[in-house]
Amino acid sequence: MVSGAAAAEQLIEVEGVEKVFSVRRKAGRLRRVRQEVRAVDGLSFRVPRGEMVGYIGPNGAGKSTTIKMLTGILVPSGGRLRVAGIDPARERTRLARRIGVVFGQRTTLWWDLPLRDSYELVRRMYRVPDRTYRANLERCVELLDLGPLLAVPVRQLSLGQRMRGDITAALLHDPEVLYLDEPTIGLDVVSKARVREFLREVNAERGTTVLLTTHDLTDIEQLCRRVMVIDHGHLVYDGGLDGLRAAGGGERTLVVDLARELPPIEGVPGARTVRVDGPRQWLAFPASQSAAPLVAAVAARYPLVDLSVREPEIETLIAELYAGGGPRWDIGRSGTTADDAL
Ligand SMILES: Nc1ncnc2c1ncn2[C@@H]1O[C@H](COP(=O)(O)OP(=O)(O)OP(=O)(O)O)[C@@H](O)[C@H]1O
Prior knowledge:
Elements: E1 10-26, E2 32-48, E3 52-56, H1 63-71, E4 78-83, H2 92-96, E5 99-103, H3 115-125, H4 130-144, H5 159-171, E6 177-181, H6 189-206, E7 209-213, H7 217-223, E8 226-231, E9 234-240, H8 241-247, E10 251-258, E11 272-277, E12 280-286, H9 292-301, E13 304-310, H10 314-322, H11 338-341
Parallel strand pairs: 3-7, 3-8, 5-6, 6-7
Antiparallel strand pairs: 1-2, 1-4, 8-9, 10-12, 10-13, 11-12
Bound molecules: adenosine-5'-triphosphate (ATP).
């Protein structure tokens, strides 16, 4: 991760971006009416060079539409977009040399060709200098254990192998920005771990800026210091995972081991006992509150042997958020930066 002065350079800039689709919907037996779908609605965020950001949201929230606008495939209906200083819709080809894209659900490789030949085509398409190509391919082959697969046609690869192949193809031309759309979808635990480890390495070694869309929150927890949550086309959260926990109003749990079995602990201000199992008891308290006074209150009146504090599950918070957890989630449409929230 790049820090200090370099971090100030904003590689992705999205300001008040909108995307409206015009669709024809059935209205009655024969009649069709035109309707507007606001897929992205006043979206604003910035991503500094070298950052790895999670971009999550429920189905239909506008994630893919955002990525398509950032690659230049779709033209925004309003607002301003810049990636590495380039307007994607105006200079799509020039931008293509600076970005890499991986879609978990489909491959960009040639189905009938061995991986090696696909890479050769990528090299020619992007006119990658020989030395860069060889160095990048070697590094990816080593880190992703692709050596034995280079001669295998893409159609014969497993999903995990194909994904490793796709990620390599996206990195051969040294992109500054990598968009990953569900890179671990359908992968087994070992393949997921390998892909995540690889992405961490790439981000650390090359300072590649990564925008990661996923439904697997473990990807986010293991890779991203910052997460942006989009719903109905605009950001409802932008910040660190810790901030998400606090903003979610979720509860933390104080788990205490007492010297012996006792009735549920009572009279601890701000906490309530939610479970008792033998000498162990669980007390829920607001995530925004410090655990220290609770511990002191329990220790003063009960024979305390051990304790731990559990953070709310990120899945629970996100589910709450997607279900329309209320206005406390809404940070407005300008978004905060990761540094504000961390
Ligand atoms: N080409 C299109 N024409 C009309 N409507 C579209 C088009 N593409 C997307 N939409 C609509 O825009 C909204 C946002 O879709 P988008 O694919 O960006 O969501 P998403 O967050 O990527 O969802 P998912 O997690 O399911 O992939 C949805 O209501 C979708 O139906």
